[in-house]
Design goal:
Blueprint: H1 2-13, H2 15-56, H3 59-79, E1 86-90, E2 93-97, H4 102-117, H5 130-151, H6 156-182, E3 191-198, E4 201-204, E5 207-210, E6 214-220
Antiparallel strand pairs: 1-2, 2-6, 3-6, 4-5
Helix pairs in contact: 1-2, 2-5, 2-6, 3-4, 5-6
Keywords: Membrane, Transmembrane, Transmembrane helix
């Protein structure tokens, strides 16, 4: 903070001095950002496919993921606008985060399930799915490493090009990845057991943590044994 204050003061009182002080900072960014992006690319090159494969290999999660997306569509349709909602699917159902009451989410989930079972499979895909984030990061990493292999240099320009390519192609590729890898609209026989308000408290190493409560939509897959659930 003191350096930033001095830099701003120098830019205001003596622009030439401020530029001299700013130059090392710019050079540091131009050097450190590409190297940091290179490490990030190596991470996503392995983490991205691993995350996609973990969802693809679990049919229950894929079907709950499809129902989660369909529920989001129904909620947005009911209010006539995109909503600040998020969620994620697990084997037993899916979570919904947003300004919704349990009855609203339950009604939306039931309608979403009926529409999926009625053939509206497009509801299983959502433009703001987390799959898009994975695809964009994976493409950016692949593009950056490809440029590194071609040019033999780690440069700031390679970072910019990789990000432009990934953010241009990623959102277009995401629906394909969702359709074939991370969702499954084959929900015939699926049942919705209810909506549970999950506690916003957790404890680890003797320390209590608080976070906003979230709604959990419990489901049962076709042929799955009914287990005890606490639902509302």
């Amino acid at each position: 903070m003191p350096f930033l204050f001095l830099l701003l003061l120098a830019l205001f009182l003596a622009p030439w001095l401020g530029l001299i002080l700013l130059l090392p900072l710019v050079l540091l960014v131009l050097v450190m950002v590409p190297f940091g992006f290179a490490l990030r690319s190596l991470f996503w090159l392995f983490a991205g496919p691993s995350r996609l494969l973990s969802v693809f290999s679990n049919g229950n999660v894929r079907r709950n993921h499809a129902l989660e997306h369909a529920t989001a569509h129904v909620l947005e349709e009911s209010l006539g606008r995109p909503l600040p909602l998020s969620g994620y699917a697990v084997e037993e159902g899916f979570f919904v985060d947003g300004p919704f009451s349990p009855p609203m989410v339950l009604a939306a989930a039931r309608e979403a399930l009926a529409r999926l079972q009625g053939g509206e499979v497009s509801l299983a895909l959502h433009r703001r799915c987390g799959t898009t984030v994975i695809v964009v990061n994976l493409l950016a990493s692949a593009a950056f490493l490809l440029l590194l292999g071609v040019t033999g240099r780690i440069s700031f320009l390679s970072v910019v090009v990789a990000l432009l390519v990934a953010n241009g192609i990623g959102p277009l590729l995401s629906p394909f990845v969702q359709r074939h890898l991370t969702t499954d609209a084959s929900v015939a026989g699926m049942e919705i057991l209810g909506v549970e308000v999950r506690s916003g408290h957790s404890q680890a190493l003797g320390v209590s943590f608080s976070f906003p409560s979230r709604l959990f939509v419990a489901t049962r897959q076709a042929g799955q044994a009914l287990t005890a659930q606490v639902v509302r």
